[in-house]
Amino acid sequence: MGLDGRAARSPPGQWRLFGPALLGWAVAAAAVVLPGTGRWIALGAGVTGAGLLLAALHRDAGRARPVARVGRRLLRYGAVGCAVLLVLGARIEAKEAARSDPGLALAAEQRTVVALRAVLTGYPEATRTAFGSRGWARAEVEAASGAVPVLLWFDDEIERWGPGTRLGIRGHLERLDPGSAAAYGVAVRAFSEAPAPEIGLPAGSGGGLREAAGTAAAELRQRLRTAAERVPGAELVPGFAVGDTSLVPEELEEQMLASSLTHLTAVSGSNISLICGAAIWCASRLGAGFRLRPAIAAAVLAGFVVVVGPDASVQRAAVMAAVILVSGFGGKRAVSLPSLGIAMLVLLVADPWQALQPGFALSVAATAGILLLVPSIDRGLRRLVRVPGLPRAPRALTLPISIAIAAQLACGPLLLLLQPGLPASGILANVLAAPAAPFGTGIGLLGMLLLPFAAMAGEWAVGLASIPARWVAATAEVTAALPLARWHWPEGWAGALLLAACEGAALLGWAVATGRIALPGGTPRPRRAPWERAIGRSRAQRAAVALLACASAGIFVSVTAAAPLVERIGTPADWSVVACDVGQGDALLLRDPDRPDAVMLVDTGDDPELLGACLDRFGVRSIALLVLTHDDRDHVGALSAVAERVEAALIAPPHAQGGADRAVVRQLEAAAVRTTVGTAGMSGGLGGGRGLGWEVLAPRPDVVPSDSNAASVVLRVRAGDLTALLLADTGREEHVSLLASGLDLSAHVVKIAHHGSRDQDPRILAASGAEYGLISAGEDNGYGHPHPDVLSDLAASGIAALRTDRHGSVAIAGEPGRLRAWAARAG
Predict the structure, then answer these.
(1) Mutual orientation of helices 333-350 and 358-384 as an angle, nearest 10°?
(2) Which of 139, 253, 491, 700 is the 20 to 30 Å CA partner of 723?
């Protein structure tokens, strides 16, 4: 075939493994949430596969040749698909048999304290909550039916253990959802590192070798963490090297999240592949032959897995790194998608429950994006970026940037399933940070390995790794602070599909423009040799490219610019009371519209993203008074998101079941917020003049509340001419006391107690005489809030119910007698 005959088409067989892998992923995701379906999948796949085999043996030899060729192809694909489903179905059935152990199920149902034998399968981690930090770790426990994956929760942070550590634990079991990676959660009451003789090891745990490797790796991680603590600006180095983010300050963590850089401190396949690629390059320069180089890459991968930990995320990263290396970062097109298909199948057979994990989907998407997009992006960058003295930019400079761009484009739609909005600064931040991250990872790993044998050299390496770490930290700080750093985009499947359509139209237009895809009735443009003249586009190609470009740009502009403008115009500017939609929690805004800068926020909910979106939508920049009605997480969980813009706070008094050390008090003190404990009889005002006035109706100062709900601060707030009664999470007993107190409970708006719980006294609704009742509850929550009896009581009292679970955020505006309600969505 001559130069003009070179077809720009995909190599044959690309989908032979990748297609069945996608099918297996979809089937596994459906099967793990429906216990008992694995056996039927295996049975159906076996029967279908046998039928295909018989059809292949007895196919009609007299058919026309093209038909026979199509038939053989379908038989091949069908046989591979059936084999995949047979293996996955059998694996799911075997795993479910262990997860449904009768002894563990009975212990979880009866909520009894049980003694268990466990082996950690990952490094312990810490979760920050409004009540402090809690340690947790993934483990396997021994059961009669085999090893069962569990999630261990500890009251304090645990750092000294590693994978393979054997524990004897005592605690309560809680059955988790069938689709959860762990079958049970264990609230650990007591534990011992050296189990009693009767506490053995789960089958297949690896015994002493696994424990010794985990202990050694944990010691290496601890040495690296200690060394990084002594070097200014090295907080990110343990994250670069082994995914340990325990030293990262909360502020920097939020900045990296806002700028889409958190993957740099997680274990990612792209970073590992760059490290392995650098190792292969060094080995080749030292004279290693082609046969030795794969062994070197495999050794680097294996050592990384041992040091970082053998949990699911690390296994995914290692396998995807192998795929990227085998495919030459997408340059070897014939093996790119097949190798990704094999990797997916290996991971799914090892643990079918990964099919539902966001990390698995992001790993597959990022790897696919790298394989399919990096070669073209890299070629374009090497032509565009100018380096003095060189005809083209070196690949070592452009490859990390190309990987960052491709991964961002591929993962964008999936990230919308996890959080709303597009990080507009994300691609810029990743492009700026991409060249630094591999150096931070490689030098950090080198320093960690040197520390036990040559401490000074190891500390010097950690100091050197702090230079790219500071660069990444500065990039996160600058890009997170840029105006319009996050653009409006709907979350959930609708937003993901919309962004996928936008990106798909742009990529399709590029493929048509470059001749990679031919229009109907045309042929793909042949690849051009460097010395050949470029072939111009036809009129049909130019029209198709223009149409696709306009469609992509139209979707993007409509969603990011037009939709927020319409939303802002539709939001009432003269609001007095707002119930923010923060899920299953409370967050209310109150103000006098004539003094819009004096805003009171009552509770924060438990979702910083939702709370921030509500504050932005209603134009709240600062909070004159924050009221935390009580310490439950669904009322204070997002405190860290607003603490820096709060001037003063009113909090609930302590109660009989709580301790003296309160996390909310510590957080407010850390933010230098003036704090007062609220009890009945207190009052105050904001904004001067008419402004915003408030008084506390409960709890009484001479009574110690029995629990956190009983300690709830009940407020009557005057916002201009409008009055609101806020009942927090009080119950029937507290309502009876309020009714007997003789206090003025009249209001134009009443915040229904406890998300619409049944524990209410309906007489308090009649006493308020309110026109509107605000119910803050999460959509499809598991508590049955609001209760039908409460809705009936509201209707009987002539109070219109406004529910955040149906209406989204709701606002009350206007003057008494002419109040109007606004809702973010139709209920």
Answers:
(1) 160
(2) 700
Asked if the peptide bond before residue 786 counts as cis, ω within 30 degrees of 0, the response is yes
Distance CA 93, CA 89 (A): 6
Rounded to an integer, what distance in angstroms lies between the CA atom of residue 259 and that of residue 419? 13
What span, in angstroms and rounded, lies between the C-alpha atoms of 114 and 101? 14
Cα 246 to Cα 204, 236, 237, 297, 476: the distances in Å are 30, 9, 11, 29, 18
**Residue 567: is its pLDDT beyond 60?**
yes
Task: State the amino acid at position 625 in one-letter form.
Answer: L
Helices 269-285 and 292-308: crossing angle in degrees, nearest 10, is: 140
Q: Which two tokens stand for residue 257?
A: 């999240």
Three-state SS at 146: strand
Amino acid at 218: A
Cβ 586 vs Cβ 605: under 8 Å? yes
Nearest to 445 by CA among 422, 473, 465: 465
Residue 808 half-sphere exposure toward CB, CA atoms < 13 A = 10
Report the b/e string of 55-84 with b at 16+ CB within 10 A: eeeeeeeeeeeeeeeeeeeeeebbbbbbbb
Q: Is the peptide bond before 391 cis (omega within 30 degrees of 0)?
A: no
| Residue type for position 345 | L
Sheet holding 683-686, edge to edge: 683-686, 692-698, 714-719, 722-726, 749-751, 772-775, 800-803
Residue 633 makes CB contacts below 8 A (sequence gap 6+) with: 129, 130, 131, 606
- Residue range 10-27: mean pLDDT, rounded: 78
**Cα dihedral across residues 486, 490, 496, 502: positive or negative:** negative
* Alpha-carbon separation of residue 645 from 255, 687, 737, 791 (angstroms): 17, 17, 35, 36
pTM assigned to the model: 0.73
pLDDT-based confidence at residue 154 (cuts at 50, 70, 90): confident
**Cβ–Cβ < 8 Å for 128, 157:** no
Compute CA distances 70 → 12, 64, 76, 766, whole Å: 14, 10, 10, 75
| d(C-alpha 266, C-alpha 283), whole Å | 26
Rounded Cα distance between 98 and 352, Å, is 14
Q: Which of 674, 491, 495 is nearest to 583 (CA)?
A: 491
Most trustworthy range by pLDDT among 58-72, 199-213, 398-412:
398-412
In b/e form, how buried is each residue of 795-821, taking b as 16+ CB within 10 angstroms?
A: eebebebbbbbbbbbbbbbbeeeebeb
Tell me how far CA of residue 359 lies from CA of 125, 182, 313, 497, 782, in angstroms: 17, 15, 7, 19, 26
Q: Do residues 765 and 742 lie in contact, with contact meaning Cβ atoms separated by under 8 Å?
A: no
Spatial separation of the C-alpha atoms in residues 278 and 438, rounded to whole Å: 9
User: Distance between CA 243 and CA 314 in Å, rounded?
Assistant: 9
pLDDT tens per residue across span 210-251: 666 667 777 888 889 899 999 988 899 998 888 888 888 878
* Tokens found for residue 516: 């990679």
What tokens appear for 405 in the block? 């761009």
pLDDT tens digit sequence for 699-716: 999 888 888 899 999 999
Contact 413, 207 (CB under 8 A): no
Burial of 253 (0-12, 13-18, 19+ CB in 10 A): middle
